[in-house]
# Entry
Amino acid sequence: MSGDPVRVGVVGLGRLGKRHAANLALRVPGAELVAACSPSADEREWAKATLGTKHLYADYAQLLAHPGLDAVFLVTPNTVHPEQIVAGLRAGKHVFCEKPLSLELDECLAVEAEAARHPRLKVMIGYVRRFDASYQDAQKKIASGAIGRPFLVRSQTTDMNDPSGFFVRFAPKSGGIFLDMSVHDIDAARWLLGAPQPRRVFSVGTIAVHEGLADCGDVDNGVAVCEFEGGAMATIYASRTMAHGHETTTEIVGTAGRLVVGRDGRLNQVEIADGHGIRTETTPTFWERFEDAFLRETVHFVDCVRFDRPPGLTLHDATEATRIGIALRTSLVERRAVEL
Amino acid sequence: MSGDPVRVGVVGLGRLGKRHAANLALRVPGAELVAACSPSADEREWAKATLGTKHLYADYAQLLAHPGLDAVFLVTPNTVHPEQIVAGLRAGKHVFCEKPLSLELDECLAVEAEAARHPRLKVMIGYVRRFDASYQDAQKKIASGAIGRPFLVRSQTTDMNDPSGFFVRFAPKSGGIFLDMSVHDIDAARWLLGAPQPRRVFSVGTIAVHEGLADCGDVDNGVAVCEFEGGAMATIYASRTMAHGHETTTEIVGTAGRLVVGRDGRLNQVEIADGHGIRTETTPTFWERFEDAFLRETVHFVDCVRFDRPPGLTLHDATEATRIGIALRTSLVERRAVEL
Amino acid sequence: MSGDPVRVGVVGLGRLGKRHAANLALRVPGAELVAACSPSADEREWAKATLGTKHLYADYAQLLAHPGLDAVFLVTPNTVHPEQIVAGLRAGKHVFCEKPLSLELDECLAVEAEAARHPRLKVMIGYVRRFDASYQDAQKKIASGAIGRPFLVRSQTTDMNDPSGFFVRFAPKSGGIFLDMSVHDIDAARWLLGAPQPRRVFSVGTIAVHEGLADCGDVDNGVAVCEFEGGAMATIYASRTMAHGHETTTEIVGTAGRLVVGRDGRLNQVEIADGHGIRTETTPTFWERFEDAFLRETVHFVDCVRFDRPPGLTLHDATEATRIGIALRTSLVERRAVEL
Amino acid sequence: MSGDPVRVGVVGLGRLGKRHAANLALRVPGAELVAACSPSADEREWAKATLGTKHLYADYAQLLAHPGLDAVFLVTPNTVHPEQIVAGLRAGKHVFCEKPLSLELDECLAVEAEAARHPRLKVMIGYVRRFDASYQDAQKKIASGAIGRPFLVRSQTTDMNDPSGFFVRFAPKSGGIFLDMSVHDIDAARWLLGAPQPRRVFSVGTIAVHEGLADCGDVDNGVAVCEFEGGAMATIYASRTMAHGHETTTEIVGTAGRLVVGRDGRLNQVEIADGHGIRTETTPTFWERFEDAFLRETVHFVDCVRFDRPPGLTLHDATEATRIGIALRTSLVERRAVEL
# Structure
């Protein structure tokens, strides 16, 4: 195998940052986790003790200055994504950044413009479903004509309810349920439908459980419709209040068949028959569902860097997901259909 | 068992009319099929030869004049439902009528008003899902609190594609895809959510296969959102172009759980493992899915007549389904959200 | 429709007898329930009050003497089946009898011999799975070559545990778990494999819960293997101790595919997602699973009588099921393979 | 993380050997693939080019002599397993060996005796199901009492038919269908039932497709029953002729519930609805089903070496699987129940 090892620095060592760091340190061929950065001394200590990461920084600028670094992995709060991507590019680093690119359209476009100035550098936003084996299989089947012309995507991202409502305090900065959760479904819909132009969206929502969301105009359950050019459509459901676990399901309807990816969020291959009937357990969070896809995503990005290949999704894809997500939020808040 | 037998006349002996007639003749305790009416000599001959129906008429008025008739079953074109219900009531007959009550709201209201003048007579519109054992089980579970407070219904009625497009010629009189197909989902949503007032609807549609529908402004695939008072919501999907068969699926989400009724439209309890993987066959039409529910529906109506009980759904329910269905059509055609 | 109505007398009004009686009285075209017979005054009163049965007898001989009776339905204890079938035939009645034909092979053969003396009379043993729509679909698929040459059946009859162990007191007269439960699987295996000659059987069993069975040499869980001529095989599982409900599942493996009938014993088409994961409820007893098949079975038998057609399964089929069942019991008790 | 890296040599670079080598080279934290051995120059070249393996040998003795090697992975023909394990131990290496330990009981015991002389060295046979996440979940559930006392395992290993019958030529050295395939089920049954002593086995088989197997007394489909002490039982099904793919399914029945692991061998989370009904694709071979388990198995073994922990299964477990497998073969060939 050719391609020099990629020396990576992880930025952000929260729950998901730790997982990216562990993958890069232990499970991604051709990657070296040489540095990590976190404002938390505990998190830095974790990286040192658990992964043996040698160079640890409290500050992103310091990490960027680390000699010989090829790429950064940004696993930081949404609000700093654009500036950190730009800084990474200007420091000559390839950049992987967790979704979303930004909550604001102009920031998305500014990042796209900056990236265009660094054509040699790879930039990819972590729309992880594109790297899930089952989503990929569905996409290949569609591309091969297995369901004729696809014209409808019905997709949902639904999280298990946290009775403590801990997330409510972060809701004001989340961009709202559609920008926070449904961008995954939007990106999947665009990908599976062949990236048609969106024309019009409509959304409604309700607070089923967490009344505290009313303060910031957010909801804990929302449904939406998106109309694309050429007659394609998508419907979206987002929920933070499921009783049984996390469930990401995407259905694609074509003129000659239908595919469903991920129905029921099965945790594993065990079926239980007892006094409750016959049942399967559900993935408690997105992590159990997409653990393997996160690894494949990172392997993909590292390979793009090593072998100078274009990433499987572009910044423009990420911008479009944000653009539609913003329109959904507008529709919810202003109670009207929104043209795009 | 008390209750005198109910002497019934069936009006309309098309495909579904024949099935209602056969049920009444052979499988409904306490019912006697004494007469039937069809403009077609062949259909009348069928009733005589197959069911032994003694009194056969070409004309509804003649059938109404048949001495001793207690009830009529109207299985006739949508457009004549209102006048035939009214005529039946005025002739002193209990009336069962296939859905929809009417495609026009004022006609619905006129029928309601007429029925109010005959409080002794039973009138019921055939929203058959209310009599399906699985839908009833779901409704009972919801009523018992099994899923907490229900706040979202996601329902679909999808038919197998008829490549001949035979149905296109009837589309102009069908009321459009939502009034023709989705009224079932609307009625189910109202029933399962506890009959909340609708507030606003939005719909979009596309012609995936049958271009001929463009002439009458109809579509062969449509999706819709309905917002109810109190934060309840429904999403609806209607299709006439499924590759695998008929599928009626209804999902009800509550604050403590979720139910799904009828997923995948399994034809029976046989699973096949062969070169295509592991699979089940799908009900080709609504009939295989709801054959038993049609019988239970008729048994229910006959028992309401025999034992003077109120039917399980009211004319007002049928009016509401039409009212929401009309709003969905308006939203589709006028490309706007419609307030109710 | 030609064919005079069949005047039927039901013999035995226990739980299953009541169900057969209700079917015959209310739901079987061409049948008239004219008489019933039970030693219990309560049960006779039930038939009169609930079904309007006019002629009620305490004694089988009296019922046989009822003028004009065409057929009898025997829903009586296993031990009296042979003598009652013979008496019915000698009285000139068509006979339907619940399974098994007998627990003793010589009695089976004696009944076959008697029936041969009355070629005009129909006799059928109630192997109800042959009339289940899904089993019939599987049998038709096999006959059409859908799975190539079938060579293996894996079948189970498993009942929900009754913690009271009520059934233990009847175990001594049941013939043991294989003759009581597995004869259904044996009959299904013979039917689906094309009635090959059995060659050898082997069985083992265990008492998982109900220690009281040890007294009569019975078990509450047993597994068995049956080898047929020509290389066909069957494996059987019988249990009385399932936690989740009744489950009758039959798998048929052929050279080009596999069918599974009735996996998981789903009660209905409702799926529940809650804190237990995603689940379906299970049929609590065989009745919920086979209610429709019992009706179809009775319709079939009545039609055989009305239109002078041969029943779908013969007395010889019933004899063979008993013969194999006896061999399984012998294998269990004597701890050896048994040649047939 | 403490624990020095483990320097591993892979022995055998056939299909499965390549996979183990790639895991060790790229995906197992704490492992270094320092050498590999194969009689095939092409395979050695593959290891050099694809994995960058530096030291390549044509001969096992040479590899054992490689300085600094800690452990060997034997992925070689069954017949050489015992001698190679012994040689590895005598050379002071930890040994991982693919299943089975041996096809002969005395060889198993000899290896056990040799291993006892090297208490510091880890030896593990690759019963990969013990490292599958779903099997592990089932085992934990059982251990926690979720299904009461387990008393029955029903397990199958069924491979997709290879119409070319290529495997027939290897059948004489495979040990027969039960020793080649069912040892996995036997080991799983012992593990899940708590390692009870086997008492008696019975098996039958048939040639459904591959007549050439008759020459060596083998079959392409076999079923078996195993009786353990204390009333536990297992039934086993092995097939080489499935139409739809590889399926490894294990059902565990307890006094309070039942678990099923791996039903239907689903390839992934995609469901397809088309003219064939609704279906999922099946894993074509055991590899797609157990790819992750093979990695987890290797990680486990490497960790056992690094941190001086006892492996999750013992040589005695492997001996027992062979012992029962031999009894099943004897039962098949001698057409009798075999006491153990």
Notes: Chain D has a mean pLDDT of 96. The two ends of chain D are 46 Å apart (CA to CA). The domain at 130-292+321-339 of chain D is CATH 3.30.360.10 (Dihydrodipicolinate Reductase; domain 2). Residues 124 and 313 of chain D are 7 Å apart (CA to CA).
